[in-house]
Amino acid sequence: MNNKSRLPLQRYLSFIFLLIPLTLTVLSCGLFILLFAFGPEGYFFPYPAIDTRFAPGYSEQAFQQIQVGMTKEEVWQRLGPPLNGVDEPVWIYSEDNGFAFWDFAWLVREIYFDEHGRVDRKESGVAYD
User: Fold this and answer.
1) For residue 38, which of 105, 108, 98 has the smallest C-alpha distance?
2) In terms of DSSP H, where are the helices of 1-127?
3) Which listed residue, 2, 85, 100, 120, has the most CB atoms within 10 A of its CB?
4) Integer Rg of the chain from CA
């Protein structure tokens, strides 16, 4: 091969060797922005419960089955014990977990009881505190 036929190949390889590090830099910066640029208590879309500690025995499916009017015993059978005391008017089934290296939003799961010990309402949301 003569020098003229190698010139386009050298240009192509030079372009590729410059493009690879540039692409990796852009992708890593983009990942950093997605994870941390939303500030403290950002919502982590890939795994929203990343910073949530749930009560032992808790499941989202069982929480969705809780209906207004159920007794404390019925709630206990489906969800198990809450994180706080059972004599409380609000049973807390999730709390801020304090994720190891960042503070993300966490999922709130609470059951409110009336004065007769029946479900008055349930809270399901996101806390940014």
Assistant:
1) 105
2) 3-36, 60-65, 72-79
3) 120
4) 26
Neighbours of 94 (CB within 10 A): 22
Give 90's contacts (C-beta < 8 A, 6+ positions apart).
84, 110, 111, 112, 113
pLDDT in tens, 79-88: 999 999 889 9
The model's pTM = 0.69
**What tokens does 95 get?**
């709390």
For the chain, percent helix, then strand, then coil, each to nearest 5?
Answer: 35, 25, 40
Rounded-to-10 torsion of CA 12, 16, 22, 26: 110
Other beta carbons less than 10 A from residue 111's beta carbon: 21
Tens-place pLDDT, residues 92-119 = 999 998 677 778 899 999 999 999 999 9
